[in-house]
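From the shared-data thread, chain only:
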Amino acid sequence: PAQLAKHERRRRVLRRVAEAGGISSSISQPPIDTPSSRKHHHIATSRNHPLPLFTFLREHNNDPALKKFIPKLKDHVLYRLRKLDVSYCDFTFSDEERRSVIIPNDTIYLVQTMQVHYTTYDIR
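Structure, as tokens:
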């Protein structure tokens, strides 16, 4: 509770500063969902941290986790767009289907904010 109150105070101060013109609207924090919104999670949609894909892959070319990264990324996007069950990624998309996924400017964005809403129980 104290941590939540501190967070709420900080949000109010930031909002007042932004409204007074102290911070440009592109820099101010996006509205944060409250637990009452009934959404399981919230991921910020900020585009403040671009990551050029091919530069990133070139800098990490010895990382085995990034082997076939682009096809895997496109498969993941296709799973999400087609609303398939991601927990059973046993379907293989064709190269033609993967080519239908276009990543604008070959850039993805790092996400700085993610909230997960969950209930805890204090069992004493």
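The first strand starts at residue 41 and ends at 43.
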